[in-house]
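User: My collaborator sent over this chain with a note saying "see what the structure looks like." That's all I know about it. Can you take a look?
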Amino acid sequence: MTNLTIDFSSVIDLTDEQFFQLCQKNQDLRFERNAKGDLIIMSPAGAETGNRNGGLTQQ
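Assistant: Without extra context I'll predict from the sequence alone. Here is the result:
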């Protein structure tokens, strides 16, 4: 799956608090920010990745 990267720095500077609120209001989505401040909407983990993550958590 592909991640979606959005550069909206020409429109708004997203503060840490605003980013936190965005994450809280959209808990079904996975957001990240890169070093440039771009917002990255992460693809959901597939079944195989989910199983690996579960195994790591279990260890």
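A starting point for your reply to your collaborator: The chain has two helices and three strands.
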